[in-house]
Amino acid sequence: MTNFVVEELCQNHTPFYYYDLNLLRSTLKAIKKSVTNRQYKVHYAVKANSNPIILKEISAAGFGADCVSGGEINAALYAGFPSDGIVYAGVGKSDEEIELGLNKNIGCFNVESVEELEIINQIAAKCGRVAKVALRVNPDIDAHTHEYITTGLAENKFGIALESLDHVIETATALENIALTGLHFHIGSQITILEPFKLLCEKINALTQKYSSKGIFFKTINVGGGLGIDYDDPDKNPIPDFKSYFEVFADNLTLRPDQELHFELGRSVVAQCGSLITKVLYVKKGLTKQFVIVDAGFTDLIRPALYGAHHVIQNLTSDGPIETYDVVGPICESSDCFGKNERLPLTRRGDLLALRSAGAYGEVMASQYNCRQLPGTMFSAD
């Protein structure tokens, strides 16, 4: 549970991101406790939050890093992640980013097309290196999540279609500067039911059995991430059920003794440890609504505007009678709304509000639209 010390919060210029490092550390411990199989390797998806202090905490806990850009590779290395624990994904890797990954001796490239394979092979030859790659497969599984964050359907831009996989494997094994080490999957984000992961295991089992019968073995299987969090009640469920998540793979996925199973967890690691703290500028009474206008906008937390997502909103400085408000920001866009018909204690100018579960895809997606300043940060720890 995040405990806010209002006196300390009031000393900071708003808006700012507040991070509870104790909760982050407890979450990391819960993951490590749940991973009882030595074949399992957990990478943190840097795209969820790349704050240097957050990254150093996760690196110090012994996790690898899942990166989707050259900038994230550099951020991970700076934070202390070992280069051989870095996997590099993404459909649009530039030549410069590929060369960076090769020169830094990263653990693996997650490759999404024949075209990308051929380019990596060319650049690896130029650098005098052999690139370790895993082929990202699109398993055509519905993760039952928002359309913008599902990635494993045939209609999505990600991964190699199952029908094309034979050809891509044949190509990969023929390229001199490519070492095919595994298969990679990622079916989406904010997945709150376990059934899609069970279906993924069934698809993987069928594929590995098919290729092993042909004498093709994969050292690594990477199942991506996607485990969701409780946005509705972050205090009741501050740490996701990692035990049940990992048990799905233990119970349903068949691994050889020499095989590694890789995970890429992001949101589930950092979302609940972060909140966006904002100050009330005005309470505007309309004809039919009351608007609480705060100094944070979708420049600071874009998920509600982008996905229609909802974050719990708490008034930290009022214990008055409950009233109903629309909580909106100052951006000159109608989509700059954090919540409609929010039930909050009587709210006045100067009150501090917390938008909870903002540790993932909050700070990392912030922008300076309207020439706004980027928010600051505050960290709490024992």
Structure description:
- This protein is of the alpha/beta class and 382 residues long.
- The chain has 2 domains: 21-270, Alanine racemase (TIM Barrel), CATH 3.20.20.10; 272-380, Lyase, Ornithine Decarboxylase, Chain A, domain 1, CATH 2.40.37.
- It contains 11 helices and 17 strands.
- Strands 1, 11, 12, 13, 14, 15, 16 and 17 form an 8-stranded mixed beta sheet that branches. An 8-stranded parallel beta barrel has the order 2-3-4-5-6-8-9-10.
- Helix 3 links the parallel strand 2 (40-45) and strand 3 (64-67).
- Helix 5 crosses helix 6 and helix 8 runs parallel beside helix 9 (242-252).
- The chain is elongated.
- The model is unreliable at 148-154 (pLDDT under 50).
What topology does this entry show?
Elements: H1 6-9, E1 16-20, H2 21-34, E2 40-45, H3 52-60, E3 64-67, H4 70-78, E4 86-88, H5 95-103, E5 108-111, H6 114-127, E6 131-138, E7 160-161, H7 165-174, E8 178-184, H8 195-212, E9 220-222, H9 242-252, E10 260-265, H10 267-270, E11 274-285, E12 290-294, H11 303-307, E13 313-315, E14 322-328, E15 337-345, E16 352-355, E17 376-380
Parallel strand pairs: 1-17, 2-3, 2-10, 3-4, 4-5, 5-6, 6-7, 6-8, 8-9, 9-10, 12-14
Antiparallel strand pairs: 1-11, 11-12, 11-16, 13-16, 14-15
Rg of Cα set: 22 Å
Low-confidence stretches: 148-154
CATH topology of the largest domain: TIM Barrel
Termini separation comes to 14 Å
Order of helices and strands: HEHEHEHEHEHEEHEHEHEHEEHEEEEE
Helix residue percentage: 25-40%
Give a quick account of the main beta sheet: strands, pairing sense, barrel closure.
8 strands, mixed
Specify the overall morphology: elongated
What top-tier CATH class of the largest domain fits best? Alpha Beta
